[in-house]
Amino acid sequence: MQNKRVLVIEDDIDAANVLEAYLRREGYHVAVVGNGLIGLNTALSWKPDLIL
């Protein structure tokens, strides 16, 4: 999954950490944010391939 970007929007820090670790291990570039407003701004600027 080379160069694929995943944006994780999750307010539960433990769940976010698990998702981030798994996705990074699978080769994704991951950004994690804690709420929808920051997620929207990040999505507009970072242009992820997938938003969770």
From TrEMBL:
PROSITE patterns: RESPONSE_REGULATORY
SUPFAM superfamilies: CheY-like (SSF52172)
Domain named Response regulatory: residues: 5-52
GO biological processes: phosphorelay signal transduction system
Coiled-coil segments: none
Protein name in UniProt: Response regulator
InterPro entries, sorted: CheY-like_superfamily, Sig_transdc_resp-reg_receiver
Organism this protein belongs to: Serratia marcescens
